[in-house]
Design a protein that fits this description.
Blueprint: H1 2-38, H2 42-59, H3 64-87, H4 91-108, H5 112-135, H6 139-152, H7 157-169, H8 173-189, H9 193-216, H10 226-238, H11 243-255, H12 259-272, H13 276-292, H14 296-303, H15 312-322
Helix pairs in contact: 1-2, 1-3, 2-3, 3-4, 4-5, 5-6, 5-7, 6-7, 7-8, 8-9, 9-10, 10-11, 11-12, 11-13, 12-13, 13-14, 13-15, 14-15
Length: about 325
Amino acid sequence: MKFRQLAIIGGILLAGSLSAQTLTDVINEFNTGVEKLNNQEYEVSIEHFNQVISLAATVGDEANDMKQKAEAQIPSAYYRQATIYMKRKQYDNAIPYLELTIEYATLYNNNEETKVKAAKYLPQLYVREGNQAWKNKNFDQAHGYFDKALASNENLYQAHQGKAMVFMDQDETDAMLGEFAMAKEGAMAKNDTKTISKINDVIDSYYNKFITEELEMVDPEEPDYSYVFEACENALGANPENPRALYHLAQVSNKKNEYDSAIEYAMKALQYEDEPVWISAINFELGTSYQNTSEYDKACEALKKVVEDPFLDRAEKKIANIGCG
């Protein structure tokens, strides 16, 4: 019984002694945190500042000032650690610290300027890491990063562009087109024509391979071009300015003796094509169409614009047959 009483009395004395010393301990703990902060040991400094907050809760009101000072240091320490990783281009390591910067600046209602800086960097890093995850075929992870980017900034059209690329590799065509449409809309609002052009090139390449596959499957003995037409129409539905789809429609229309249609498709294709060999290919089909509609002057004009192989030799033969001046 005496042991228990002594233990209780001893506990009371110890508590009183601890209470009397805790404020000093809080100050010492804070100073250690500042020392670690100045030495760029940011994670260690955060541990000390968290200990300040814990000890201050035991001391009470007289430690509130130290508690607030510790709270003010924590978001800043997280941000400084993030900047070190960003300078090293270790963006995947920087992201959690930027997130913690925002979380604790919001929690403690301080460091607004630092919070704004972190919020500015974070969406761009999400996109960067999303693109890297996509290249590594980590599609779920990539979607996660892009979704975080859009949650941080709904106008970040590069995240929609990234999601579209992932959906493309997953063969989810409708989702791909939806994301590309939102990306193009955002890019258009920023007058980012480079991104719009890049997206259209990706869409065109995606659909053009189906056109090529259908052309290769046409039976030369009993040619049926209906699937080629369908593939071309699908491509133009995704991008009405796809020059290769228009070219192949002109090519197939010539094979089906639908020369007026071939002329229309070829003229449209020339509006959007910029590669010399394909311009030659289109002009060859255009010249062929005009030749078959007896518009020889126009045929000669088109055929003379064919300057690239493998179309040049065939164009020269047609020019000789027509008797172009």
